[in-house]
Write a structure and sequence with these properties.
Layout lengths: L5 E4 L3 H12 L8 E5 L11 E2 L7 E2 L6 E2 L4 H7 L12 H11 L8 E2 L15 H12 L2 H4 L16 H10 L7 H10 L13 E2 L5 H15 L3 E4 L2 E10 L2 E11 L2 E6 L5 E5 L8 E3 L17 H7 L9 H4 L2 H4 L1 E9 L2 H10 L9 E3 L6 E4 L13 E8 L18 H12 L5 H7 E8 L25 E4 L13 H15 L16 H11 L2
Parallel strand pairs: 1-2, 1-12, 2-8, 6-15, 12-19
Antiparallel strand pairs: 3-4, 5-7, 9-10, 10-11, 13-18, 14-17, 14-18, 15-16, 16-17
Length: about 525
C-alpha cells in the first residue's frame, strides 16, 4: 500500500468523495491519489459561478435539493469536511444550522393559468390511481423492464396535483422509466405528506459549488491530493487472467499531447462514466443557446469506448440516443435591484430560501422557479439577487411568447415568467434591471431513460480487481439516480470494497419499514 497510486477519472463529486474516503477511511496518503479532470475546474455538475456569457450575471445549470433521511452517505462525507467560513464547524453542521434558521415551507407550490395559487395539499388521487401505484410498487424491476411511466398509469393520474408536483420536483417526464419512478416512490415515500410544501427539503447556505465542492476541494488540497486539470482520459486498456479483470493503461490527452499512464501491480483506477451536463450551452439576454445533438465535448466518448470491451460495462446509447426525450432548459435571473424579488415574496408569501419550487402547472413550457436564500453565491454583490428556474416542455409554445422555449432569448423567457406571475405592470423595469443566463442541457434527465438492468454497469463489475465505475450511470440496486447521494454512495462502495474498509456503509433508507411513515404516506394518498 505504501506506493499504491489511485487514479480517479473525472473531477466531479463522485471522484472527490472517493478521494476523501480513501484518505479518511482507507488511510491512503493524499500524495498517492490523482484526480484526472478534462476541465480547469472541479465539481462536475455541481456548479455555480459568474455567468460566462454576461458581464454582471450568475448561473447554475441545475437546482438541487437535499433530504435528511435519504442522503446518509452524503452526510457521512460532509461530517469530515470543515466549513470554509468557520473551520471549527463541519459542512454537515453548517447545513443543519442553516436549515434550522431558514426553514422550507412552500406556500405557492402550484399556480394555475389565472395566476392563482391553488391548494396543492389535496393530491387528487382516485381509487384507480392508488391501485396503479400499489401495482407499480409490488412489481419487481425485471417484471417492469423497460416500460414507461405512462404505460403503468391511466390518464387521470397525470392530471393530479401530486404528479404536477412530483414530476417537477424530480424532473420526470411521462415517458421516463417506470423503474426509476418506483425507486423514487420507495426512497422518498416520506415526502408524500409534505410534497406540497417541500418542507422535507434541506438546502445549503449557498449554491452547491460554493457550499460543498469548494470546501471538499480545500480539504483535498490540504491533504496533497494531486489534481490534474486539462487532462482527458480518452481510452482504457483492460487485461484479464484467472477470472480477474484489471485496468492496465489509461490513455490521456493533455497539454503535452497524447500520453499513457501504466498502472502498477497494486494501483487502482475509479472511472466516472456518462454525463448529464455534457454539451451544455448557454445563452444570454439576447441570444439563444444551441442544442447540440452530436456529442461534441467527449462527455460520453470514454464510456462508449470501454463499453465495447465487455458485455457488462453497460450500454451508453440507451441514455444518450434520444436527446428530445431528455433535454430541458434552465435559466438564472440576476436581478440588479429588488423590484421583482419583492413582488414574488409578497405573492408567494415566502421569504427567499423558504419557498422551494413554484410551478406554473398549466404553462406551455411547464415552467418552475425557485428563489433561493440570498446571497446564493459567496461573492454575490450587495443589492443583487438571483432566481433559478427551468422548463420541461421546451419544444412547446409559450402562453405569452408564442415560441418554443428552446428558441427564446433570455429576455423572452423573463417576459413569459413575468406574465405567468401576472406582474405585467413591472415588466419594463424588470427587463431593464435583470440579466438572464439560459442553459441548454441535452442530457439533463437521461438517467431516467427507459432501460434494462444491464444498461448500467455495476460499481464493482464481476472480477474487477483494481477498478470501479462511479457516477450517475452505474447500477446500485434500490438507490435513486439524479441525486448527489447516488454519486457519493457509489464512491463509498468502491473504496470500502477495494481497500477492505471495516466500516458499515450507511443503509439505504426504507420509509415503508417505519409504520409511522407508511401511515402518513397512506393518509396523504387519500386526501
Amino acid at each position: 500500500m505504501e506506493n499504491d497510486q489511485i487514479w480517479l477519472v473525472g473531477g466531479g463529486i463522485a471522484s472527490m468523495a472517493a478521494a476523501v474516503f480513501l484518505i479518511r477511511d482507507a488511510n491512503i496518503p493524499g500524495e498517492q491519489i490523482h484526480i484526472l479532470e478534462e476541465l480547469d475546474i472541479a465539481g462536475g455538475s455541481l456548479d455555480g459561478s459568474v455567468s460566462p456569457v454576461l458581464k454582471n450575471g450568475f448561473v447554475t445549470r441545475g437546482g438541487r435539493m437535499l433530504e435528511e433521511e435519504a442522503y446518509q452517505t452524503l452526510w457521512n462525507l460532509l461530517e469530515s469536511i470543515p466549513s470554509l467560513e468557520d473551520p471549527a464547524v463541519t459542512v454537515r453542521q453548517e447545513i443543519i444550522d442553516f436549515n434550522i434558521r431558514v426553514k422550507t415551507e412552500a406556500h405557492a407550490r402550484l399556480i394555475n393559468k389565472f395566476h392563482q395559487v391553488i391548494d396543492a395539499g389535496a393530491l387528487g388521487f382516485n381509487m384507480h390511481d392508488r391501485l396503479e401505484m400499489m401495482r407499480l410498487l409490488a412489481l419487481s424491476e425485471h417484471k417492469i423492464g423497460s416500460r414507461r411511466i405512462d404505460e403503468m398509469f391511466s390518464p387521470h393520474f397525470f392530471g393530479t396535483n401530486f404528479w404536477q408536483m412530483w414530476r417537477t420536483t424530480f424532473a420526470f417526464q411521462n415517458w421516463h422509466s417506470a423503474i426509476e419512478l418506483k425507486r423514487y416512490f420507495l426512497r422518498f415515500i416520506q415526502e408524500f405528506p409534505r410534497i406540497h410544501t417541500l418542507s422535507g427539503v434541506k438546502r445549503t447556505k449557498y449554491n452547491q459549488y460554493d457550499s460543498i465542492v469548494k470546501p471538499i476541494q480545500s480539504w483535498l488540497k490540504e491533504k496533497n491530493v494531486q489534481v490534474h486539470f486539462g487532462t482527458r482520459v480518452t481510452d482504457i486498456d483492460f487485461s484479464e487472467a484467472n477470472g480477474q479483470r484489471k485496468i492496465s493503461t489509461l490513455h490521456i490527452q493533455n497539454k503535452n499531447g497524447a500520453e499513457q499512464i501504466t498502472l502498477g501491480q497494486h494501483d487502482y483506477a475509479f472511472v466516472t462514466i456518462g454525463s448529464i451536463t455534457a454539451d451544455t450551452t448557454m445563452g444570454s439576454n439576447d441570444t439563444v443557446p444551441e442544442l447540440i445533438r452530436d456529442r461534441r465535448d467527449g462527455g460520453w466518448s470514454l464510456w462508449e469506448r470501454i463499453a465495447g470491451k465487455a458485455q457488462d460495462f453497460g450500454r451508453p446509447a440507451a441514455f444518450y440516443a434520444a436527446v428530445d426525450d431528455h433535454k430541458w432548459e434552465s435559466f438564472t435571473l440576476t436581478m440588479h435591484g429588488d423590484i421583482l424579488l419583492k413582488r414574488i415574496v409578497a405573492y408567494s408569501k415566502n421569504e427567499p430560501g423558504t419557498g422551494a419550487l413554484m410551478t406554473f402547472y398549466e404553462s406551455g413550457w411547464l415552467m418552475s422557479v425557485v428563489v433561493p436564500y440570498q446571497p446564493h453565491f459567496a461573492d454575490q454583490p450587495k443589492d443583487t439577487y438571483t432566481l433559478w428556474g427551468y422548463g420541461l416542455f421546451i419544444d412547446k409554445e409559450g402562453d405569452y411568447i408564442k415560441k418554443p422555449m428552446a428558441k427564446c432569448t433570455g429576455k423572452e423567457i423573463l417576459t413569459e415568467l413575468i406574465h405567468q406571475l401576472g406582474f405585467e405592470d413591472i415588466l419594463p423595469e424588470a427587463l431593464a434591471t435583470t440579466d438572464v443566463t439560459t442553459v441548454m442541457l441535452p442530457y439533463a434527465s437521461a438517467l431516467f431513460a427507459c432501460r434494462k438492468v444491464e444498461d448500467r454497469p455495476l460499481v464493482i463489475p464481476k472480477g474487477a480487481a483494481n477498478f470501479a465505475f462511479l457516477g450517475q450511470f452505474t447500477e446500485m440496486p434500490e438507490d435513486v439516480v439524479f441525486t448527489v447521494e447516488y454519486s457519493v454512495h457509489g464512491a463509498m462502495e468502491a473504496v470500502y470494497h477495494h481497500f477492505k474498509v471495516d466500516k458499515p456503509i450507511p443503509p439505504i433508507y426504507h420509509g415503508l419499514m417505519d409504520p409511522k411513515v407508511g401511515l402518513q404516506a397512506l393518509e396523504s394518498a387519500f386526501k
